[in-house]
Amino acid sequence: MNLTTELARPVSGYYLLGVIGNPIAHSKSPVMHNTALQEAGVQGAYVPLHVEPEHLQAAVMGMKAMNFRGFNVTIPHKVDILSYMDELDESARFIGAVNTVVIEQGRLIGYNTDGVGYVRSLKEEAVSTIEGKHVVVIGAGGAARGIVYALLLERPQSLTILNRTAEKAEELAKDFKVLGNVNGYSIDSAEQVLAQADILINTTSVGMHPHTDQTPVSIQHIPEGIVVSDLIYNPLETKLLTDSKHKNCITHGGLGMFVYQGAIAFEHWLHVQAPVEAMRRAVLASFTS
Ligand code: ATR
């Protein structure tokens, strides 16, 4: 992304930001972004906004009327919000969902920073490059969609999607064929596909609290020493990651994706570098408070 060093200009001298969703009370985004604003020395506030689906349009218009600089969008509004955007970034267009909105002189511009945030986190924390690698993604839902898009921009040698429901993996692969070498199969092909893998990424909820004893694939199929990444951040280390460590794998948890999707949103709103480490510390601290 092109970062200008000049701060975007607020209408009121104060940047208003927020997140709309339902449920929203337990979102970690407010603590993360308020810390970021403070750390970056920017006057403003980021608030959690509980919005019911039938009030989505009114909420969006309200934010425009109140001169919000932008906002995040979470479940269940990520797809429905598309119809209120004046402009869509390529990420949102390809993925078909918006998680970040910038309000630019009354115009609503929709972005999706989830996948790009994930890839930035993977590259900062686990791999030097994705180019030329064999990547395997488990799962074919909304989270996988954003990640497949962002991974293909990095030009892997191959990207294979494995899913419990094979048709969904095939469909997802078909949607992104134009961006690279991507195929979808049933999770039953895991043994064969994983034998070639350099990077394995779990996008399903298998292993998430409270089912922390589960893994999305049998550990015996994971080759020694590859990179294993899990989008789940509760727990911070899933059984998939713990078991992979025993096979000398480089592991990567889901917290970084959350932090970096926020960091990229912050940069879209304010045009200043996001204080990533302070944001990560704020989220981690909120887990224990
Ligand atoms: P998200 O937006 O988090 O990706 P989603 O769109 O509901 O959520 O997708 C969930 C993904 O996790 C799907 O790929 C789903 O597999 P199916 O397409 O077969 O439903 C996968 N998933 C969820 N629970 C699973 C389980 N117990 N075993 C295997 N895969 C599972």
The portion of residues forming beta strands comes to: 15-25%
Mean pLDDT: 95
Give the biggest beta sheet. Answer: 6 strands, mixed
Summing up helix and strand content along with how strands pair, one would put the structural category as alpha/beta
- Per DSSP, the total helix count is 10
Specify Rg, calculated over alpha carbons.
19 Å
Small-molecule binders: 2'-monophosphoadenosine-5'-diphosphate
Which percent bin holds the helix content? 25-40%
**Low-pLDDT regions:** none
Shape: globular
Give the neighbour order of strands across the main sheet.
2-1-3-5-6-4
Order of helices and strands: EHEHEEHEEHEHEHEHEEHEHH
Number of strands: 12
Gap between N and C termini: 34 Å
Model description:
It is built from 10 helices and 12 strands. The chain is α/β, with parallel strands linked by helices and 289 residues long. The chain is 35% helix and 20% strand. Strand 1, helix 1 and strand 2 form a beta-alpha-beta unit. Helix 1 packs across helix 9 and helix 9 (255-270) packs across helix 10. The longest helix has 16 residues, at 255-270. It has a 6-stranded mixed β-sheet, with helices on both faces. Strands 9-8-7-10-11-12 form a 6-stranded parallel β-sheet, with helices on both faces. The chain has helices spanning 29-39, 56-65, 90-95, 114-125, 142-152, 166-176, 190-194, 239-245, 255-270, 276-288; strands at residues 15-21, 44-50, 70-73, 87-88, 100-104, 107-111, 134-138, 158-163, 182-186, 199-202, 227-230, 250-252. Bound molecules: 2'-monophosphoadenosine-5'-diphosphate. 2'-monophosphoadenosine-5'-diphosphate binds at residues 139-144, 163-165, 168, 203-206. Residues 139-144, 163-165, 168, 203-206 line the site of 2'-monophosphoadenosine-5'-diphosphate. Residues 19-101 form the Shikimate dehydrogenase substrate binding N-terminal domain. Shikimate binds at residues 27-29, 74, 99, 114, 233, 261. Belongs to the shikimate dehydrogenase family. The active site is at 78 (proton acceptor). Residues 254-284 form the SDH C-terminal domain.
